[in-house]
Every structure is written in C-alpha cells, then in structure tokens.
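Design request, tokens follow.
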C-alpha cells in the first residue's frame, strides 16, 4: 500500500483529500517492527507521533523484579505515545510490538508546522484529540462506578472492537478471537483489581462463557452475554 493511501485510511485523516494530505504525507516515515521489538524505551525522548497501520503494540512498564505491567494495548488505526510527544517529555513507559507491526511516524516539528498552514488537517486532529479525551474520561468513569466483572467485560469488548477477528469455531459457530498474550496479572493491571480476582472471573468464564482462554489468546464465545455483563446495574 502506498504511504499516502495508508495515511488517508487512518481515522484522523479519513475523508481528507489526498492532495490536502500530501504536504503532511511527505514527512511521514513508514517503519516495520518485528514481534517483540521495542518501538521505544521508557525514558527516551519522545519526538515522533506514531500511527499504527497494521499490527498491535503494548505500552508497558518493566518492574525491578523483572516483571512487567501492561498499561494499554493498541491496534490498527490508533496513535500510541502521543501525549508524551505533544508535551515534549520522555516516554513514561516502553512500547513493544505484540506482533509484526507497521507504523507511520512523523516528527512533531514537521507535524505542527504543516498543521499551521492547513486548516482542514488542524480541525480533523482537534476532533480526534477530543474523541481520545472522551475515551479517557469514559475509562476513568468505568473504573470508578463499575464493579470488577463489569470492567473485565468492558475490557474484552474493547479488545473485540480494536483487535478481535471473527472466526468459525470447531462447531461452526462464529466467535471473536483476541490474539493477545496476556497473563492474569496483565488483565488485573488493566482493570485495576488483584490478580486473584482476575483469576476467579476468568476461570468461571472459561467454564461458563462468555470468554475462554486458549493457546493463542482469548475467544469471545458469546458477545451478547459480554455486553449484558458490562451493562449490568448493581
């Protein structure tokens, strides 16, 4: 896929004519990362906006005991690490490719200089920033008002939307597979609960549904049930 075409298919630039995008597109650099390769390390200078074209990236903090805490998982059509780049601060966490990943990256100086001369691009980016802020507010609201099982259901609904793939199960039913190598500890970190709590819910879901663990990740066997759990009122 041509660089400009790939850029035009990203949500922040969707429906913007390619001739309008072209001045910005000249500064974007396509990069490829192999599974397990770091996009950046915690503490390094944040200079480039990174748009994921294809693949998945985890943002993670490595602990002194050798373990890691996953702060987020990003997939196709998402921007990762943008707050540090915008604020010109070192990356507060590392970013690692969960699979072979393709990105489009642009230095912040080229990005903002071009936006200053392009009103349509500027408006599109502002809209995207407001959407991301709304998602963050919703995330904080979820953590504050929902119970642990609801947050777990919301997490897997988001995984289904961002990185899920519809496949046929052995019995011919359509299910959603989430190919993410997450441990119970990772899940606990993502929904802000103790590991024992995440283990309890995932063990029950494995037996009863709606999410089962397999060798490659997780399979959502009943999307409707997952939504019901997420929307349940205490």
């Amino acid at each position: 896929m041509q660089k400009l075409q790939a850029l035009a298919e990203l949500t922040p630039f969707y429906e913007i004519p390619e001739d309008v995008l072209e001045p910005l597109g000249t500064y974007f650099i396509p990069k490829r990362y192999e599974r397990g390769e770091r996009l950046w390390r915690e503490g390094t200078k944040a200079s480039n906006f990174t748009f994921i074209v294809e693949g998945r990236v985890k943002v993670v903090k490595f602990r002194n005991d050798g373990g890691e805490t996953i702060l987020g998982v990003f997939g196709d059509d998402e921007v990762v690490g943008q707050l540090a780049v915008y604020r010109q601060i070192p990356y507060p966490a590392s970013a690692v490719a969960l699979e072979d990943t393709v990105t489009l990256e642009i230095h912040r100086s080229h990005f903002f200089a071009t936006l200053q001369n392009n009103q349509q691009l500027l408006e599109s980016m502002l809209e995207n920033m407001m959407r991301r802020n709304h998602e963050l507010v919703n995330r904080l609201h979820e953590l504050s008002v929902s119970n642990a099982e609801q947050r777990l259901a919301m997490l897997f609904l988001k995984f289904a939307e961002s990185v899920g793939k519809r496949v046929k199960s052995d019995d011919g039913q359509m299910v959603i597979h989430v190919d993410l190598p997450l441990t119970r500890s990772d899940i606990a970190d993502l929904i802000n609960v103790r590991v024992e709590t995440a283990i309890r819910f995932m063990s029950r879901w494995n037996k009863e549904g709606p999410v089962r663990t397999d060798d490659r990740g997780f399979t959502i066997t009943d999307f409707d049930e997952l939504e019901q759990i997420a929307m349940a009122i205490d």
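Comment from the thread starter after seeing the answer: thanks! Residues 147-231 form a domain with the Arc Repressor Mutant, subunit A fold (CATH 1.10.10.10).
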